[in-house]
């Protein structure tokens, strides 16, 4: 995420929303496992920044953005502490959380594509860069919470990321108006995700019950 | 893996077999946890490419090979989709899978040693480089499936990798005929692994039942 | 860790103690899950060197220290094998282990701060660098053992690391006598950790029982 060209101030602003949203969803996951306050903040930072960190490691994109701007650590950490305070309200805010989480997914994906593009990566790697940025933080959160990652099990999470990335990346090739395309991609991705949640769209599952020996 | 010297075309070809084999074994593991199709493909890519990725991160060997050649992502992903289609046949192909998996282990180990050697690493790091390339993908697969990694629990998996690496690395020091040595190492490693599976060779286990407090 | 300025020979010596201690605690964790001898050694290396490795990846601090000095792999691996031999004595050595583990935490934290400082990182990143070096190895150990990381759940582990790092980093800003400050920090951090264990100090926990849907 981040390292945006100056014109993308809208995307930059949305990145702050996304970091906050990811921090809050991670805090709720931490609360379900009765982690202590420090653990809640750490899990929030790993969830919010883990995707971008992995992408930067894969692309050799140094310095990592949170190393260059430590304020990015404070944001999800602070959001996690806030979540502890307002946890009782949270179940009434269920819808708000779903929307925030969807914003996080779409915005991180777009930022990841941006970074890949700036690193002169090929189109498939631009898409992968977006997907890693958008989805890997949640995988790390689930692994640290000792769950099989939600990403692998259900919901159109990775799929939304791929579609968003493909649509967004097309703009790079077509030399279209960047800001218009950014807004269009954001609306498309967000709608796709919210419709998927609303109507419980799911990918078919692969169920295999052979013997456990490899 | 990969980044092979042009002469090692045999190793290069075997790498494709290994990527496919790892993708298929990962798909079966995903199917046992009822992951959806996207999750199956993602797990296959992580398993097949995770070892080489970790090795490249450890050695600072940029660009990562799947970033330079995204086709390496398509191979295990496609193999995973194929596995979904033919899953009903798979239990009849048990032996084929064991052999393919063993090929993956041995080939990835040799490729890892090659990369370490090309990076001017010392002998122990060449061996570790081979072991990480050969074994770490399976560890990531087991962590994402929420299992204690098989590597740590049983079978001569890491041991086969170390022996293969040691034997292979000797050639670097002795300046022997590279191609002959490649074939010899491959046959030795594969035989060792298959014998270990056939006769259920195992390392002794360390069982400690002290109190859980650290 | 490591890459110390030559004057810090005390810290260097303590690093060997810390690597050994982390290897031994990891071996006990491995024994509780009945891992085989190879798995015990691998888990010891990951636990002892994982924190420093992650820090080096985050900061782009190449070559990794265990790549440059493979002897760092032999130390926790050897300590793990030794632990298998003396496991029956270990429950009598409970206190010694707690002290060794605390030394590991404090020393790794200080070394991590040192490395961050040498990389010209900002103060928050120096602290994070210390915390990652001190704590991340234990997180990796718990993930590989299929546990929710202890770090997130209880005890003042991360907190000790942060306080130690803050105190230590103050010296960088104040230009104080480095060796005196090193010893002071070590005593402070160790005392804090041991008092926390002795009196079971804990952070408050965040318990959230909302629905599981994100």
TrEMBL record, chains A, B, C:
InterPro entries: Gly_transporter (IPR005115). The keyword Transmembrane helix applies. Pfam families: Gly_transporter (PF03458). It is a multi-pass membrane protein. Residues 13-87, 99-170 form the Glycine transporter domain. It is found in: Cell membrane. It comes from the Bacteria. The chain crosses the membrane at residues 12-30, 37-58, 64-86, 93-117, 123-144, 156-174, 180-196. Its main location: membrane. Keywords: Cell membrane, Membrane, Transmembrane, Transmembrane helix. Belongs to the UPF0126 family. This is Trimeric intracellular cation channel family protein. It comes from Bradyrhizobium zhanjiangense.
